[in-house]
């Protein structure tokens, strides 16, 4: 199948070199609506193990909430200054309910026989029964989606900064996540770098290829 | 700073809609060298918490090793058919050694005063001392890099399939990772979809926006 016109490797690398963990955003420069929609959609379209999509994404728009989250983020300036702030949450524990939800989604799009649904349940049974281990698994899926977003934002020319230095239980409280079945994993600030961000001109620190890649 | 020319939101979305978890690759169609270099570089340039890059990437080229890994991957056809197979490994436990390695990297690129290095060590001390918890953290960083790769491959028009259904300890044995300080997390097969891959024409199953996104 002929796909969409690919971009050149050089253009991709320029975008990935251009991006960095933006420290200071320009609060006065919003992300255009079409780019913002595409960034959200990059999360929704991200792949996940078994296709379970064990995540929810909260877009934080309330200024009061931003202030409360800033206090739960070591006062990192991005939480208040970035035009957009997303909180990426994971399913706290994958259950058979999640498998049924996925099967129902599939049934809404195409015919799924009872036998096919039964095979689906059986295929996921041992995973779902692993219970507690699914929490870390779900967190990894959220990070995969975050990686898709990081690359998507870069090629769109939008700055992004993943924020791991947050207090997830405090985020959960501020966002009222108790009882929802979802928990905060990581946040990400998005917008455009401020003119004076000192981090923008720092060299990117990456180990050389020989220390990252091996062949076998 | 004016960045590289961004791609349009529509073009990004076309690429993300086009991609899918490729089941059958065309073994006879290699990835051009420039695209392959860019895909590897997308991993090397991926962001990571504290900039620690707690990963190593193994490119599996030996046919004998491919066969051994196939047996450790439920015989999923991608492991033998995809022109490229990467194994993404995490640092098994982050130590003060990793912090020193990062400081040495920084010192190779710019002047770092002893005071600055000391602040760096102090800032990471409590994280490093958390010991065992760093293994799951490192796995999440690997997934973030995997997400960057998924998006990078898509915009380059290269097919990719993350492979979670593998036996990591068996991979570690086959790849000789014991004692290296790195452990298998996930694999990814890359190349181009075979003409007959039934998965290529299946509808993408994604929960609707209203079930993924909330505003607060």
Describe this structure in words.
- The structure is a homodimer of 216-residue chains.
- The first copy, chain A, is α+β, with helices and mostly antiparallel strands.
- Helices cover 46% and strands 14% of the residues of chain A.
- Chain A has a 4-stranded antiparallel sheet with strand order 1-2-4-3, with helices on both faces.
- In chain A, helix 1 (9-18) crosses helix 7 and helix 5 packs antiparallel against helix 6.
- Chain A starts with 8 loop residues before the first helix and ends with a strand.
- The interface between A and B is large, with 85 and 85 residues.
- Strand 5 (213-215) of chain A pairs parallel with strand 1 of chain B.
The protein's oligomeric status is homodimer
CATH architecture of the domain at 22-93 and 135-199 in chain A: 3-Layer(aba) Sandwich
Distinct helical segment count of chain A: 9
Which geometry of chain A do the CA atoms define?
globular
**Biggest sheet of chain A: strands side by side, in what order?**
1-2-4-3
Percentage beta strand of chain A: 5-15%
Largest sheet of chain A: 4 strands, antiparallel
| The CATH topology of the domain at 22-93 and 135-199 in chain A | NADH Oxidase
CATH H-level superfamily of the domain at 22-93 and 135-199 in chain A: NADH Oxidase
What's the number of extended β-strand segments of chain A?
Answer: 5
Structural class by sheet pairing and helices of chain A: alpha+beta
- Poorly predicted tracts of residues of chain A: none
Binned, the helix content of chain A reads 40-55%
Work out the radius of gyration of chain A: 19 Å
Q: Secondary-structure element order of chain A, as H and E? A: HHEHHEHHHEHEHE
CATH class of the domain at 22-93 and 135-199 in chain A: Alpha Beta
Chain-averaged pLDDT of chain A: 95
Question: Largest interface, counted with CB-CB under 8 A?
Answer: A-B, 85 and 85 residues
């Amino acid at each position: 199948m002929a796909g969409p016109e690919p971009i050149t490797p050089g253009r991709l690398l320029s975008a990935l070199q251009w991006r960095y963990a933006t420290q200071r955003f320009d609060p006065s420069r919003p992300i255009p609506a079409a780019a913002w929609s595409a960034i959200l959609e990059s999360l929704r379209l991200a792949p996940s193990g078994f296709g379970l999509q064990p995540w929810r994404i909260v877009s934080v728009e309330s200024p009061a909430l931003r202030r409360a989250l800033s206090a739960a983020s070591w006062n990192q300036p991005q939480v208040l200054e970035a035009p957009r702030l997303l909180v990426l949450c994971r399913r706290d524990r994958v259950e058979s309910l999640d498998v049924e939800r996925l099967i129902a989604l599939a049934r809404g799009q195409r015919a799924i026989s009872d036998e096919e649904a039964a095979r689906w349940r059986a295929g996921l049974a041992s995973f779902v029964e692993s219970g507690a281990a699914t929490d870390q698994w779900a967190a990894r899926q959220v990070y995969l989606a975050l990686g898709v977003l990081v690359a998507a934002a870069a090629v769109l020319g939008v700055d992004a900064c993943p924020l791991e230095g947050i207090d997830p239980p405090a985020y959960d409280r501020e966002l009222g996540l108790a009882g929802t079945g979802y928990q905060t994993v990581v946040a990400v600030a998005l917008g455009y770098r401020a003119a004076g961000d000192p981090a923008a001109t720092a060299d990117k620190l990456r180990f050389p290829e020989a220390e990252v890649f091996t062949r076998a």
